[in-house]
Specification:
single chain; 78 residues; mainly alpha; 81% helix
């Protein structure tokens, strides 16, 4: 471990248990946000490659409606 990490680990171990718990929760939240951001960037890149990134909201909603109706007619005929 680097000295910076060792120093940080020592500081964390000196915290009260509730402070350590709060720190762990905050770290989990930040890591979740970072992973979510990375996932959204991957999704945007995929849409960009497929040429669908600039579709309008109306186009997307119309497509979703079409899919919903198709599924409904298949699952609930007549």
């Amino acid at each position: 471990m680097t000295s910076k990490v060792e120093k940080l680990a020592a500081e964390i171990s000196a915290l009260e248990e509730h402070e350590q718990q709060a720190l762990l929760e905050r770290m989990a939240e930040l890591n979740f946000r970072r992973r979510l951001y990375a996932l959204s960037e991957q999704y945007r890149e995929r849409l960009r490659r497929q040429g669908e990134l600039d579709r309008s909201v109306e186009e997307i909603l119309a497509e979703l409606k079409r899919i919903r109706e198709e599924v409904a007619s298949h699952d609930y005929p007549g």
